[in-house]
Input
Amino acid sequence: MKNTITTLSMFCFAMLISCCKDDTTTPNGDKPGTASYMEATINGEPWKACRRIGAVGEENLYAFYFPADGYLQMQCTDYCRKFQETSTSIFFETSSLYDTGYYPLSMFNRANFSLNAPSGCRYANVDSLNGWFYLKEINTEKKYMSGEFGFTGYCEANDSTITITEGRFNRIPY
Output
């Protein structure tokens, strides 16, 4: 009986610590150390979208890219580590992304940070606040992209701002 309780306790502990596991390979099976991720510093706190494992298995690192139209939509969500007691997402949408390079955020190239809860806030970049998106790699053969970003978002619901710095994304599949 004691061995059963010990084994069950160890199993439960292992399940708890494995909630959030970073990928060790890309979606295309590339070598370890080249995993897909997005990370940033939000109001001075580290944030990283992690891949949820288990029964639900949400895909939380993805993009849709149509190079002929210059349209990109990218969303990365952290379901495991909580920011203000809820899951969070960083989202980008561009309408003029035809190649690698620097893109200022505006009403046409926009970003937001969302608290995914009924009372959550969507901190969106606005024209009067600084924001940028740097696409440094598009791999059209293996269908992934990498780059950097930073922006200040404003939430009208509670009249507050959030600052996102040191943003990086690596090998986000599209």
